[in-house]
Amino acid sequence: MGSYGCVFLVRGHVNDTAAATWYGSHNSMDFWEDVMNQDPDKICRLFEQWACSRHQSKPASFRPSHLLTDVF
User: Fold this and answer.
1) How many Cβ atoms sit within 10 Å of the Cβ of residue 57?
2) Is 72 among the domain residues?
3) Residue 13 CA: distances (Å) to CA of 17, 34, 44, 51, 56
4) What is the mean pLDDT of each run of 10 residues along the chain (72 residues)?
5) What's the confidence (pLDDT) of residue 62?
């Protein structure tokens, strides 16, 4: 009973100085390890790579799928 949640906080530009971090309630981060077989730190790094690549001069249809090929 209750709810679970997780948050990944990453910088959105390569020049930002914020440190990437994550938080999960009620052991929700176990989902990433148990179901997705991925370490939350790795997910955080991939999310940060994706976020930083969003605002570079890429076509609107650009999808950095190469960043996720080893995740799923």
Assistant:
1) 5
2) no
3) 9, 31, 14, 7, 9
4) 89 87 91 93 92 69 56 50
5) 54
Look at residue 51 and tell me if it is in a domain.
yes
50 contacts 10 by C-beta, under 8 angstroms: no
Domain count across the chain: 1
Distance CA 54, CA 56 (A): 6
What's the pTM value of the predicted model, to 2 decimals?
Answer: 0.66
DSSP conformational letter for 18: P
Q: Tell me whether residue 47 is in a domain.
A: yes
Q: Specify the pLDDT at position 14.
A: 83
CA atoms within 13 A on the CB side of 43: 18
CB atoms within 10 A of CB 19: 9
Structural domain span for residue 27:
6-67
